[in-house]
């Protein structure tokens, strides 16, 4: 068993210029951008490499763009003979993990993610809902505070790491939750730059529509152990994959539990494959002894390859 886990980032990790270096040097990476354009009918590489930032941050664009860059990075690692012993992805990143595990083809995944993004963006009218990160309170405390909200909706949406829980809801619910959290001793309550209350019950219409879309999508059993957001456990069959993708849209991301499951199973090396280092920061907070690296450009690729060579 390879003791390496590939973890794939979600929305919020995007930046203008992502993927450009690797696509410029490695044909495997450039081919992924061509495949994305063929599937979607618009130039994903242009948006990723040159923006503009406001277009890249629109949910409908961000999700296929981050998936494309992540799989470009994954293909470059594969070309260097680096393969994962297990995979996981944060929210949108779970689709990248499914491609890496052989459960979805990239072409199907990028079309599916584009549709998912549209459904999520339109499930709640713009400006009616959002997300806040609550820093410095335990997960159980944040969940309890959400239950105390009487006006509006506030639900724990991402259990990211110790002392970092993201809450989703409508404007009234988030305002009430923010006040309660500050009164309970939260270090900070930070509004997130997202367009909707993702991973909450307000996304139920998107989940229902996604279920219909998934009926037409060929899904295979994962060929690599994959820990899923919804259960923080492994999925083994195509049917489980589909069920979890439907639930995931309106259910919390149990990231901390997912990482603890992999750590308990003996995985010690985590490579964040795709733009940014958000997941690396979360894993550090979960276990300071874990070995963590990233691959998003030539510098981080070379550093990761050197690290893996040393560990041999």
UniProtKB/TrEMBL annotation:
GO cellular component, one term: cytosol
Enzyme Commission number(s): 2.3.1.39
GO molecular function, one term: [acyl-carrier-protein] S-malonyltransferase activity
InterPro entries recorded: Ac_transferase_dom_sf, Acyl_transferase_dom, Acyl_Trfase/lysoPLipase, Mal-CoA-ACP_Trans/PKS_FabD, Malonyl_CoA-ACP_transAc, Malonyl_CoA-ACP_transAc_FabD, Malonyl_transacylase_ACP-bd
Keyword Transferase included in the entry's annotation: yes
Regions that span the bilayer: none
NCBIfam families: fabD
Chemical reaction(s) catalysed: holo-[ACP] + malonyl-CoA = malonyl-[ACP] + CoA
UniProt entry keywords in alphabetical sequence: Acyltransferase, Transferase
Name by which UniProt lists this protein: Malonyl CoA-acyl carrier protein transacylase
Active site, renumbered: 91, 199
Similarity field: Belongs to the fabD family.
GO biological process, alphabetically ordered: fatty acid biosynthetic process
SMART domains: PKS_AT
One matching Pfam family: Acyl_transf_1
């Amino acid at each position: 068993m390879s003791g390496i886990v590939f973890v794939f980032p979600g929305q919020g990790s995007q930046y203008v210029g992502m993927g450009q270096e690797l696509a410029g040097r490695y044909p495997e990476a450039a081919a992924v951008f061509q495949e994305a354009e063929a599937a979607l009918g618009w130039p994903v590489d242009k948006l990723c490499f040159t923006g503009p930032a406001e277009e890249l941050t629109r949910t409908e664009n961000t999700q296929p763009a981050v998936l494309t860059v992540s799989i470009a990075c994954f293909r470059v690692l594969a070309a260097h003979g680096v393969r994962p012993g297990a995979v996981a992805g944060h929210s949108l990143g779970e689709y990248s993990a499914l491609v890496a595990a052989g459960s979805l083809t990239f072409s199907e995944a990028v079309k599916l993610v584009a549709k998912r993004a549209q459904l999520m963006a339109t499930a709640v009218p713009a400006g009616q809902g959002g997300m806040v990160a609550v820093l410095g309170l335990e997960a159980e405390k944040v969940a309890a505070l959400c239950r105390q909200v009487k006006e509006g909706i506030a639900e724990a949406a991402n259990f990211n790491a110790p002392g970092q829980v993201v809450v989703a809801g409508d404007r009234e619910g988030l305002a009430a939750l923010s006040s309660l959290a500050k009164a309970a001793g939260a270090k900070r309550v930070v509004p997130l730059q997202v367009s909707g209350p993702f991973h909450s019950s307000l996304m139920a219409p998107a989940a229902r529509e996604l279920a219909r879309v998934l009926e037409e999508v060929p899904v295979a059993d994962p060929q690599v152990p994959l820990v899923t957001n919804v259960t923080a456990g492994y999925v083994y069959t195509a049917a489980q994959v589909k069920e979890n993708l439907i639930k995931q849209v309106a259910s919390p991301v149990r990231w901390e539990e997912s990482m603890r499951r992999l750590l308990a199973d003996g995985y010690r090396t985590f490579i964040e494959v795709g733009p940014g280092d958000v997941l690396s920061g979360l894993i550090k907070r979960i276990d300071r002894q874990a070995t963590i690296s990233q691959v998003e450009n030539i510098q981080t690729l070379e550093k990761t390859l050197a690290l893996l060579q040393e560990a041999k």
